[in-house]
Write a structure and sequence with these properties.
Length: about 270
Amino acid sequence: MIQTVAPFDFEMIKKQNIYYRLKFNLLRILTSLSIRKARNVIFISDKAKKELSHYYKLHDSKTFLIYHGKSELFKPDLDSGRLMEIKQKYGLDEFILYVSNIYKYKNFFELILAFSLIKDKINPNLKLVLVGKNFDDQYTELLKTFVINEGMEDRIIFYGHIPYEELPYFYATCRLFLYPSTCENCPNILIEAMACGSPILASNIEPMPEICQDAAIYFNPFSPHDIAEKIQTVLSNNILLQELKQRSLERVNHFSWEETARKTLRVLEGVNA
């Protein structure tokens, strides 16, 4: 099973520090060895299959597309008492949300810059909430310094890592969920957000459109101006926000761990036949 396509995104790799460049190069070597030895290869997005087909001769009869599923933890109807606890614990009120570990290719800076462009044009109480572990100290310091220099400490909140079981309450109560990442395989985060009924704005780079289809509005993740324009447009249209919520809940029904398990079992049975 191909879990990541990051080792084959050479433009992204060039932007990483030496540790991650070495890590991705090693992963590419290991992936190459695995593909050459495998009888069958499972991909978790069509984007991944297309990406690797540039480097390897992949026979359709030996490749299988099996998406990830949605966890029952993520749903739009949550315990109201627990919801109040979470909102009080984190001071959540009106906010837009990005959930992702902090790497350069996740485009946190572009999103923060986009927010800075519209912060005076939208609800002054609306915050940008960022949830995820820091995996790049230098980049994170750059982000936080920019936020301080722009006087946005009270508008842009870095929560870092939070308990997994608390994530649904963030997804379900955000005004808008944003996903400007530029390199993904089958992003579980988008499936989680859809399962909670989040209205979604996402990067127009595959596999985001493949996963969300019409359940999201897409932007150029390298253009803070485009991101800002899309945020402002959607936030000013309550009808569109409700439509996006409904589309998320409909689209997520295409992702089931039961179906994932059935398809995976069929592949494994074929290998052992």
